[in-house]
Design brief:
- With 316 residues, this protein is of the alpha/beta class.
- It has two domains: 211 residues, P-loop containing nucleotide triphosphate hydrolases (Rossmann fold), CATH 3.40.50; 92 residues, Magnesium chelatase subunit I, C-Terminal domain (Helicase, Ruva Protein, domain 3, Orthogonal Bundle), CATH 1.10.8.
- The protein contains 14 helices and eleven strands.
- It has a five-stranded parallel β-sheet.
- Helix 1 packs across helix 2, helix 2 packs across helix 12 and helix 12 crosses helix 13.
- The two termini are 25 Å apart.
- The relative contact order is 0.17.
């Protein structure tokens, strides 16, 4: 496979864009005023990554996961992370039955997983997700079992200052291709939410508008989006700046570079283009590197760090 794929035939671009627009429109009936965030979540899915949503309770994180699974027609499991949750509760366990041990699969064996309040579980339990997210498989009792395709984890995370939370280690944060916040709704959106119908009723009325095969075809098209030499120069400049600048304690890893590249390809494809432009990189950059950059001053806001990096690194 070449580093710079041949551009996709243009005639397939518009149907993909229309499909994504229809998905966003359906989800936006439930999650009001968050189109950009919805598109970023879809970017993570189409780039074969996973997404972490960190925000205060009650802003729609769990609801977004439910409606996403409904509209995409994916098998769905919700795992509520608590302090007494065990790895076997996620992966599964062998039970002795009629003279032999039979493996009973856990909720991880679904196409879409909602890891709700993932940082309320202990580090031991959180680690049960690592192999699944990184390699799309789990190993239990010496046997490796493949997970369904597509396999997508949407995790929610409470702010660390809240009671009963455990910090996510950097290695686990790095498994999430994109991290974002939903944020509070603006005045007009919240008014529409308060005066509108119950969200659960709307979700139950929604129908899947794509098939699993449609999603797999879009995922397969993402690596074929053209990436020019100049775009790679820009990406490498971002990576090298993060490693050399005294502003950051830890720079971006090669895996972070691949995440930027794949998300930029997915974003371009979802916009109906067969090539990546620098604006695609800048659009997805806050979500992809905000949780990977470590500043010298820990109190510095991740969004500000990314904005400063974009300003400091010139486009070739």
């Amino acid at each position: 496979m070449t580093l710079f794929p041949i551009p996709i035939v243009l005639k397939i671009m518009q149907p993909i864009k229309e499909t994504i627009d229809n998905i966003v429109a359906q989800i936006s009936q439930v999650i009001l005023g968050k189109e950009l965030k919805i598109r970023l979540v879809l970017t993570g899915l189409m780039a074969r990554g996973h997404v972490l949503i960190e925000d205060v309770p009650g802003v729609g994180k769990t609801t977004l996961a439910h409606v996403l699974a409904q509209v995409l027609g994916l098998s769905f499991q919700r795992i509520q992370f608590t302090s007494d949750l065990l790895p076997a509760d996620i992966i599964g366990v062998s039970i002795y039955d009629k003279g032999q041990f039979k493996f009973h699969v856990g909720p991880i064996f679904a196409q879409m997983i909602l890891a709700d309040e993932v940082n309320r579980a202990t580090p031991k339990t959180q680690s049960a997700l690592l192999e699944a997210m990184g390699e799309h498989q789990v190993t239990v009792e010496g046997e490796t079992r493949l997970l369904p395709v597509p396999f997508f984890v949407l995790a929610t995370k409470n702010p660390l200052h809240q009671v009963g939370t455990f910090p996510l280690p950097e290695s686990q944060l790095d498994r999430f291709m994109i991290r974002l916040e939903l944020g509070y709704p603006n005045h007009s959106t919240e008014r529409a939410l308060l005066k509108g119908r119950e969200r659960r009723e709307i979700i139950n009325e929604l129908q899947a508008i794509v098939t699993v095969q449609d999603i797999l075809e879009i995922q397969n098209a993402v690596p074929k989006v053209h990436v020019s030499e100049f775009l790679i120069d820009y990406l490498q400049a971002i990576l090298e700046f993060s490693r050399q600048s005294p502003r950051y304690r830890v720079g971006l890893s090669p895996r972070a570079g691949l995440a930027i590249l794949h998300c930029a390809q997915a974003w371009a494809l979802m916009q109906g283009r067969d090539h990546v432009v620098p604006e695609d990189v800048q659009m997805i950059l806050p979500g992809v590197i905000g949780h990977r950059l470590v500043a010298m001053t820990e109190q510095q806001n991740a969004q500000i760090l990314v904005e400063q990096l974009i300003e400091d690194v010139a486009i070739p």
